[in-house]
Each structure stands twice: as C-alpha cells, then as structure tokens.
Design goal:
There is one protein chain. This protein has one domain. Helix 1 runs antiparallel to helix 2 and helix 2 packs antiparallel against helix 3. The protein is mainly α and 141 residues long. The longest helix has 37 residues. The chain has 5 helices and no strands.
Length: 141
C-alpha cells in the first residue's frame, strides 16, 4: 500500500502539470482565435499568424489549432485578394492602370476567388468553433 501511495505521489504532479500545460495552451488558442475574429481587416493576417504560432503539445489543443488555422488561412488569403482588387480599382480610377489591361481584366476573377475562399473559411470555422467548444469543456477555459 505504501508503494502505491509513493507512486501516486510521484505521478499525480506530472498529470496535473500536463493538464495545466494543456489548459494554458487551450486558453492561448481561444484568446488568439478571439483576437483574430475581432481584429480589423488590416490586422487579420497578423492575428491569423498569431493563431498558427500558438504552441501546442496536447493533442486536443493541436487538433483545434489545426482546424482553426485551416479556417483562418483561406479567410486571410481572401482579404488579401480583396485589398489587391481595391488597390487596382483605385489605379484604374486614377488612370494609372488601363481598364482594358490584362491586370484589370483579371480583377473580377480575383473577386470570385476571394468569395470562394471566404465561403471555404466560414465553413471550416464551424469545425474550429466546435473544437474550441470542446476545449472549453475539457479544460474549463
């Protein structure tokens, strides 16, 4: 019996430490995704990178992170395309870019691509949200 108690005394702090690290990682991920959601468009790419930079060692946190990054990446690409199109439209209005140039003619296609990316990102964000909810349940964050 004493040997069992001694083993438990040695193992219990390690289990709590693992849970503590997982809880910290889960909280960091939840906060990073929340910051991404509330960031203005100009800061979305930076906040998206912050999500991918969240460290994870717990498999549940890593799975949630992977799902969230999969949702954020197409959204960030879409916003970049939107900004690029807006800049080129401004160039057309200023007379810097000809309306009939190949670059100008490609703009509608870029907007279509951005729309598809946003749709993809929104759909994948449902998986991210579900995994974050699981983290809230598992870790109480």
């Amino acid at each position: 019996m004493t040997l069992r108690l001694a083993c438990l005394a040695l193992v219990a702090p390690m289990l709590v430490g693992c849970t503590g690290a997982g809880k910290h990682e889960a909280a960091s991920l939840v906060n990073a995704v929340d910051a991404f959601r509330h960031a203005p468009g100009s800061a979305k790419a930076r906040q998206g990178k912050a999500v991918s930079d969240v460290p994870c060692s717990d498999t549940r946190v890593c799975g949630a992170k992977q799902a969230c990054v999969a949702a954020i990446e197409p959204t960030v690409r879409a916003l970049g395309l939107k900004d690029e199109v807006a800049a080129r439209v401004s160039d057309i209005e200023k007379g810097i870019l000809a309306k009939d140039s190949p670059e100008a003619q490609a703009l509608p296609g870029k907007l279509d691509e951005a729309e598809k990316l946003l749709t993809d990102g929104r759909a994948k964000m449902q998986t991210c949200d579900a995994k974050l909810t699981d983290l809230h349940i598992d870790f109480g964050v």
